[in-house]
Predict the structure.
Amino acid sequence: MIHLEGLELCAGEFSLAGIDLEITEGEYVVLMGRTGCGKSTLLETICGLLPAAAGRIILAGEDVTMASPAQRGVGYVPQAGVLFQTMRVRENLGFALHLRGMDRHQQAARVAEIAEILAIGHLLDRWPNRLSGGERQRVALGRALAFRPRVLCLDEPLSALDDAIREEMYGVIDDLRSHTQVTTLHVTHNHADADRLADRVFVMNETGLQPVEKKCV
Amino acid sequence: MHSSDRPFRACLFVFAAAYVLLLIAMLVADASFTSFGNIWTALTSPEIQYAIRLSFLSATITAILSVWFAVPIGYLMSRHSFRGKLLIDGILDIPIVLPPMVIGLSLLILFQTPLGKAVESVVPVTYRIPSVIIAQFSVACAFAIRAMIITFDQIDPRGEAVAQTLGCNARQAFWRVALPQARRGVLGAGMLAWARALGEFGPILVFSGATRMRTEVLPSTVFLELSIGNIDAAVAVSLIMVTAALVVLCLGRLLGLGRKVF
């Protein structure tokens, strides 16, 4: 589903070559590494927010290396969610659906479906600044998944949460996986995230991506 | 607060109080120099009424034009890196640091060049009302641009990045995500440009002149009344401008515009 072939990242002073990765459909892969090693840069390159200096990005069999972010069909959840502050939760969830010209009834049905999976139905009329950290992350996940993306990229989505909320979010992500089977690449610093969620774990360093056993993380 | 910090805090208060007192003393002195009768006489003078109308109209047009330019320029400077950005950033501040008279002189010379003369042959500018708006715009827009750069700098660019992954192109991400979040900043930039345009004098004096019932704006009125020794009228007009500026400042605060923007 996600196939990276000889990918070279370049962002400002940072560059890293020779990244190869194969993630199969429905797999949940966690990517770890020290700060500044390029994990977020890799996610943003897969999403199309940064250009690839070389190599190929293939999503669901389609070469999207030169495609715009909008054309890639990647759901992206940055750190701290980054919800649209001038829109209520309902509008945040329906944003991608509205852009795709979906009619109002279909939008409402899909928003309700996502809200039910994430247990945020009671938050639909709230503004983002009235949400707790965990609620914000649920909404950010819902917004990224509403348009049924081929791939989900999570950039440290749980880093700002306390242990209790983090444990709760593991359950939410498990539910999402069982409902959507979406292929996921999750960047984190937290070993517990990898132990709890990952099918496979990779560590990123100067030489590229190295697969590691979960218990070795 | 720890007792050892009190002298430092007191020192801060002394500086603040000295400056605020200076400003208040100036306003009180203006107010005590004139009377409501003098202000009313000034307000009913046809020349001053013309100056009030032209000032408010030109400042409003200038504010709208300034926002129209400041929003895209502010977004460009805040979000994009390009060769020569440092130079462009410096050039944008020229109207803020340049003496106002020099701006007026530069505009006057610009409209004597072949390009300026070509414009003049279609729309007469120099020493006419359009020159008032151009002179105000040249300065006020720089302040509006600075306000918009600060506004966009304070908005997380990842919002637009997320919008693009959700299906927006760059234009849609700007209109749907960045601009709605910047609306207070846009309003603040407009008010700042309006207040700045209302008080503009140097460039207008050089580029537009100060002809009564033609290119006279409120600052020109203060100058003209002072030059004929009519201090009462000059003070009355000054108080009108002070009141207008205070209304705009208070409106800005009521609308919750941040100190960094306003």
Remarks:
- The domain at 36-254 of chain B is CATH 1.10.3720.10 (MetI-like fold).
- The mean pLDDT of chain B is 91.
- The two ends of chain B are 30 Å apart (CA to CA).
